Amino acid sequence: MISVQNVTKSFSQGHEQSQVLKGVDLDIKQGEFVAVMGPSGSGKSTLLQLLGGLDIPDEGTIEIGEERIEKMKEKERTIFRRRNVGFVFQNYQLLQNLNVEENIAFPIHADGTLKPSDQKRINGLIKAVGLSGLEKKRVNLLSGGQQQRVAMARALVNNPGVLLADEPTGNLDRAKAEEILALMVSFHRNDNQTIVMVTHDIFAAGFADRIVLFKDGKVERIISRKDDDYAEYLANFMA
Question: ABC transporter domain location, by residue (predicted)?
């Protein structure tokens, strides 16, 4: 589903170039739930931006499905992203003057007219994320956990091949975070949704099938709960 090969990325800092990604290789299968962890500045959020087509690498290839992201022009990447990639952010990124249903429907309106099948999809997602009865409530009146549920439904409304989540539980307490993570797992298991989640939280990462450990712009190790040294290695890595 996702193939990243020898990807590098640098950013300018004054007169100097800072290399954030240093030859990243990563393959993610269809329907897999992968968490990306690492210290601040290790490159994990930059990788997520590249996967979503928000930027392109300096070198290397990024393939989603059969599409080469780095080969696309900016307009092509925008259309591809809108139709094939869902985003969930730490700060929700909702339109505060719109209600729940309007926020979820927004990506569809950006691509055309709302059809009956789209409304059915919206209704199903509202039910799936536990917001039935709140369809007409403005999102600025919702709790943080409820806003993140709206954000997740919006990210999934176009039935994307890939869901990208950047610290989706960072603004939530442990109980609300667990609810959001459980929702992600349900979409992963029931709909075979491919998910890539960046997180600094070991608890959140534990919901994923595999954890990609990032350090100094490279993949340090890919680990899963089945590995004998899973807990010990993860604790030492994040220490």
Answer: 2-235
**Both tokens assigned to 139:** 């999102």
Say if CB 193 and CB 204 are below 8 A apart.
Answer: no
The CA distances from residue 221 to 1, 25, 28, 153, in Å, are 20, 11, 14, 32
What distance in Å separates the CA atoms of residue 161 and residue 158, rounded to the nearest whole number?
A: 9
Task: Give the domains, in start order, of the chain with CATH numbers.
Answer: 31-59+73-238 (3.40.50.300)
3-state secondary structure the chain: CEEEEEEEEEEEECCEEEEEEEEEEEEECCCCEEEEECCCCCCHHHHHHHHCCCCCCCEEEEEECCEEHHHCCHHHHHHHHHHHEEEEECCCCCCCCCEHHHHHHHHHHHHCCCCHHHHHHHHHHHHHCCCCCCCCCEHHHCCHHHHHHHHHHHHHCCCCCEEEEECCCCCCCHHHHHHHHHHHHHHHHHHCCEEEEECCCHHHHCCCCEEEEEECCEEEEEEECCCCCHHHHHHHHHC
Q: What sign results for the dihedral spanned by CA atoms 111, 113, 117, 118?
A: positive
Q: What is the CA radius of gyration of the chain?
A: 18
Rounded to two decimals, the pTM is: 0.91
Per residue in 162-214, pLDDT (tens digit) is 999 999 998 899 999 999 999 999 999 999 999 999 998 888 988 999 999 98
